[in-house]
Specification:
Blueprint (H helix, E strand, L loop, with lengths): L1 H15 L12 E10 L7 E4 L5 E4 L4 E4 L14 E5 L4 E4 L2 E8 L2 E6 L5 E7 L2
Antiparallel strand pairs: 1-2, 1-3, 1-9, 3-4, 4-5, 5-6, 6-7, 7-8, 8-9
């Protein structure tokens, strides 16, 4: 009976855990680009729907991987891999750094640009 209880406890705790999304690091997992923010300099920029296959994947080891460039903006970096920091809610590749927030399974990324620029992603897993 004791062995059966231990086995049941192991199954319950491992099946309830999620590597993709957890309360402490809701950014973990893969995200698909759906919207892009553009501002021509008058402060009235808006997000517009885009058709893109760009994804960002935030890994548990602190890396962020993209099938396109990880980062864009004033310090654009031509790289598909960067690092992310959960405490600061940032990710970077070279000198290019971005800030992110996750609200209701939407990842919003703000890049360092002369004019406002950013992207919105939805979770794919």
């Amino acid at each position: 009976m004791r062995t059966l209880s231990l086995f049941a406890l192991i199954i319950i705790t491992t099946s309830c855990g999620s590597k993709v999304k957890d309360a402490q690091n809701p950014v973990l997992g893969t995200w698909q680009l759906t919207e892009s923010l553009m501002d021509i300099g008058d402060g009235n920029g808006t997000y517009n729907k885009v058709t893109s296959d760009k994804t960002l994947t935030f890994e548990e080891d602190g890396s962020v991987v993209s099938n396109k460039n990880v980062c864009q903006g004033n310090f654009y970096s031509d790289a598909n891999v960067g690092t992310w920091n959960a405490e600061n809610q940032t990710f970077a590749s070279g000198k290019c750094e971005a800030q992110y927030t996750v609200i209701d399974d939407i990842l919003e990324v703000s890049y360092n640009c002369i004019e406002a620029c950013g992207e919105r992603y939805v979770r794919t897993n």
